[in-house]
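User: Predict the structure for this protein chain, please.
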Amino acid sequence: MATKEPPEIARTAVEIGTNKADLRWDKVLVGSFLAGAYIAFGGLVAITVSAGLDPKVWGGLPTLFTGATFTLGLVLVLIAGSHLLTGNMLLVPISAMRGRLSLGDVLRNFSLVLIGNVLGALFVAYFLAVQTGVIGHVGSDAGTSGAMTYERLASIALSKGVHENDWQIFLRAVGCNWLVCLAVWIAMAADSVSGKILGIFFPIMAFVAMGFDHVVANMFFLPAAIFAGVPGIGWDDTLRNWLFAFLGNLVGAVVFVASSYWYMYLKDEPSEHLLRRDARG
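Assistant: Here is the predicted structure, written as structure tokens:
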């Protein structure tokens, strides 16, 4: 199995980020909708698999099962092809650091991807999680699959939307996207599908198992809880979580991955705009 060395990964990241930012706006929106839906699929299967597992009996295993199955989301994003905000927080800024993109390019891409991710996650949350009955609702018969998935979703959503304070959300989001972007980085090292999936698995499983906050995943969990009628959580809680998760994810990606690897492998190379100017004479 062929693999890239870290300097090659850094150059690949720049090319991918530049291509993403150069796409036409409608293509970005469609790809972003898909990515939001894919992450929501990962969240939905994670809830389904871990529902009904009492921590008093199973200990920490439910969080392991949740993390292992949630990896489906990023596998679909990277292998099938789409645009995920948290991954773009690595790829687009590192391209800008190389002089390939402007700040305006970065902000345009983030804005379009954010809109598409929200729409995709909400679509799955409402139509495929709640309206299908996969996630139960208030009053679901005890012991049924609907009741168990409802209770599992309620536990996750209340933890993230109500019990975590702003500082905790921010810090958990920093750790989350540090690991998510490392999963993206490692996946870029592999040329085979199997190698990419293996590279994605462990960092994603780890961040979910530790309860870190991923802004796009929370675009599924929190609205799904509202749609399912979980008491005690509202759109104000949801928007607060999204804000601090976004900020933490941005810091985790830009500071700890994009800037770090740019500094190690790309900083001392001539920037792209200088290379183009030299080529023109």
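The chain has a mean pLDDT of 93.
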